[in-house]
Amino acid sequence: MSKLMKIKDLKNYGIPSYFINIWEKQPSPYLLPLQEDAFKNYGILNYNQNLLIIAPTSSGKSFLGEMAAISRVTHHKKIIYLLPLKSPAEAKYRHFKNLYNSLGEDTVISTRNHREEDYRIIGGNYKIAVMTYEKFNYFLLKYPKLLKDVSLVIIDEMQSINHPKWGPLLEDIIEHLHKKELVHLKIIGLSAFIENQKALLKWFPIQARTLLSYQYPVKLRKGMVRDGIFEYITSHKKNTCICRKEIFFKPKSVRDNCFEDYLLETLKYLINQGESTLIFFPTCAETRYWAELLASRLKSPAVSSPSSALKDLTKMEETLSRDELLKPLEKGIAFYNQDLSREERNLIETHFKKGEIKIICATATLSADLNLPFKNVIIPLDKMHDSDNDENHFHNYRTSINFADIENMGGRAGILNIGNHQNSPSSSHQRQKFGRVIFLAHSHLSETAFENLYFKFLKNNNPNNNNDNTPSKHLSKKEKDLPTYLLRLLLKYNFKPKKLKKYLKKGNTPANYWRFIFPKENIDEEINNCLHILKENRLIEKDSNGNLSLTPNGILIAAKRIKVETYLFLKTWMNYTNKGKISNLEILYLLSQTPDGEEIPIPFYHPSISDYKKERYKCDREEIHAERILQLIFQQNEQDKKLYQKKIILKNCKQDEIFSLPEQLSFKKTLLLYDWIAGIKNVKTIEQEYNLYQGSICRLGEGFSWLADSLSAIAENSNWKNKRKEDLTQIKLLSNRLILPSFSSTNSQLASCTLQPEPTFSAPHTLNTNDQRLTTILEISLHRPDRIIFMGEKIEVTSTEFSLIHFLAQHNGQVMSYEDIIKKIWGPNTEAIYTRVVSHFSKIKNNILKTIGKSKKNKEKVNNIFKVISRRGIMLNLAKDKLQII
User: Fold this and answer.
1) Statement: the pTM of the whole predicted model exceeds 0.85
2) What is d(CA 327, CA 333) in angstroms, rounded to the nearest whole number?
3) Between vectors from CA 396 to CA 257 and to CA 475, what angle results, nearest 5°?
4) What pLDDT, on the 0 to 100 scale, is given for residue 280?
């Protein structure tokens, strides 16, 4: 056996021992083959060499980026770490904070719903900044000095360049970095397998070395289950053609053409082996359906005792997803999809690591988020192709998975848990670890489909045999919005009009990765009209040489990635709206009417509603939404506003006219978000009223928050900061309220305005019969962290409970988010989840009631003082003279 490189050997590369000590606590003290190759042969830590790494999922790419980032930090350099979406960005942020915060490493995050530290990024006051592509693009265009002393940009999940939404954005970012020509800046790109790999390598404009690896960190048994036999090939060695067999179940125990039978029998076998399994499904509805069905059909639970998972789940805020998770969790089964809240996903991840969940049914769209130690992965035949992860949106459709999809989903198998030392040569770890990638061939047709889709393709295009016959091709996308495309194009190239037309007629250039297709009929006239619109609205200008370039407002639109038509719609409203007269309802409806607002998806109906009721229910709800928005307009005395007149008021007066589908969806979005920010209704009530899950509501809120933030930026450029300061502030506050569930209250400059104190509870002066003059309700002494005094009675508390009460008392009357509380009390501890705060808060209230009595009146008092604010956090709600800290 060749000598493997140990993590402690990194001291030879200048990594301090205190970082190495942390890394040695990871699953293995040894570097994976890809990581060793990157250090020994590809100069991962070299300052002057860009690097593009393409390797399987779970092969250790992200850890390479992490080590490169930490190496730069030790030399007092700034690093930017990029990810496509907020969920993996949040996970990466928590990971850095958890591991390195105690060493003084300072990480900040910036996504659509995390803006509280944006001012630090703008000012360069950070060491590592984790950002989404979208936010990085915004900073890159709006703040030219952003990269002045940035030493390293890591672009993770680069396979998203094939995504029709994020791909063109990532292409623009990479080309912008290429044009900067900053000699001090190094780029590291990290990508899983992609279908169009040859084209990516051919296009990648930044001069870089390319590290390609097709080796998984552990042996994978990839194969099909047919008639109870799992026939597989192994992926650990170069020769992947050796077939082996493993008996899962007897052929007579399943019916042919029955996927359910095959799935149940396969899981029974894996459960008996004590192994964990991840099952991918195309849609959220299918993950819920199969999790519930498996829980009802599997007689033996997947785990012996999931009690703490259930206990934590019952303490969480009531949602439809929470209720639907209860039954599967009893059997150690869960579903994992974008309908879940962040806290619910966190709970599943935490208890899976503890071994209390063994089977997870997940959507393929979240495969990148599930970095958990699964032994087995079961792959479906199809997936949901969608632009925004909302499968009930009418633009979405099913499509078959491809070879790259299978490789990336299958890479989730065989990941080792903490404490299992992979590749260790010691005697206790001689046995080779493996995982399984399983295709359920429940019919002859599915067997043939899997054979053609994967195994024949693998044989004919085996990269280890240097026989990759896959063609290199450009990706194309039909572009209907010519003005916006021209604006973004002129940001990259300062064309003259004539050269611009020539560029478009040629179908872009070979240098592009994404090509945009336009109707060629009357293209010259269309371009002239669009350029006229851009010039008239001062979005582009012509220099003395005739070259076209963007104005500050044009740059703003490109940075925010909103449409030109959206900008013009918002500007028109800003010109006719009256100072001091705007309302939240009006702003929400305005945003829903923009082209960008219309494109933010929202499911039509709740998947649980039976088919025969869908159409009737939808019509009933549409009528209710139209009536309610009219009612709100008149209640707020806004019926004369121009925004409402043509689109709602006048149309409603004409009884023969009906509202179109976009108008009905606009009403639904407006009313939903209006209720969401009010905080009067709990999550479950809103979910039931609008037939949506919390995940869909949060994504809608984030999208509208981004639009509201764009509106405030446009208003600032129009000098509202001086002319209409109160209106500008209202738009900013609304933008923050729309993302409040993830909004960090203590770090925000707007927190004191956004999170208004709740009405305080005023208690009588005679709460204690021994002292009629007593007015203090809660007394906290820093000299006695073992107790508090409530209504004159001593209440024993733990040190954690005292810290929680003291923290809330310091911010009396303010809603403190769970994230802020966790940061303050537990520090960088990723296991301290939402439920831990709720648990301690409940214990405090219960201990108080045990002492003062559990009467209905006392319960109301305690609940009003120690308040849980739906979707926002918790607070201490006392008048100043009722609280004493000594």
Assistant:
1) no
2) 9
3) 105
4) 93
Give backbone dihedrals phi and psi of 191, rounded to 5 degrees, phi first.
-135, 140
Task: Write the CA distances from 89 to 108, 350, 600, integer angstroms.
Answer: 11, 18, 21
Measured in degrees and rounded to the nearest 5, phi and psi for residue 581 equal -115, 0
Whether the pLDDT of residue 574 is over 60: the answer is yes
Contact predicate 155/174, CB 8 Å:
yes
Q: Return the number of other C-beta atoms located less than 10 Å from residue 43's C-beta.
A: 13
Q: What are phi and psi of 444, to 5 degrees?
A: -60, -40
* Structure confidence by residue, pLDDT tens digits, 103-140: 888 899 999 888 888 999 999 999 999 999 999 999 99
- The C-alpha atoms of residue 139 and residue 149 are separated, in whole angstroms, by 14
Q: In angstroms, rounded to a whole number, what is the distance separating the alpha carbons of residues 703 and 91?
A: 20
Residue 241 is encoded by which pair of tokens?
């053609």
What type of residue is 727?
A: D
Between CA 835 and CA 821 the distance in angstroms is 12
The three-state DSSP-derived secondary structure of 166-187 is HHHHHHHHHHHHHHHCCCCCEE
- Taking 3-state DSSP, the helix, strand and coil percentages for the chain, each rounded to the nearest 5, stand at 50, 15, 35
467-482 pLDDT, tens digit per residue, is 555 556 668 888 889 9
State the pLDDT confidence band at 508, using cuts at 50, 70 and 90.
low
Neighbours of 747 (CB within 10 A): 18
C-beta of residue 197 within 8 angstroms of C-beta of residue 403: no
Say which residue the tokens 């703490």 belong to.
308
Assigned token pair, 691: 């037939």
Q: How far apart are CA 766 and CA 771, in angstroms?
A: 7
Summarize pLDDT for 77-106 with one digit per residue, the tens. 999 999 998 888 988 998 998 899 888 888
Q: Which residues contact 401 (CB under 8 A, 6 or more apart)?
A: 364, 379, 380, 381, 382, 383, 409, 453
Task: State both tokens at 615.
Answer: 């159409």
* Contact call for residues 110 and 129 (beta carbons, < 8 A): yes
Give the integer Cα–Cα distance in Å for 72 and 7. 18
Write out the two tokens for 264.
Answer: 């149940």
- 373 falls in which pLDDT band (50, 70, 90)? confident
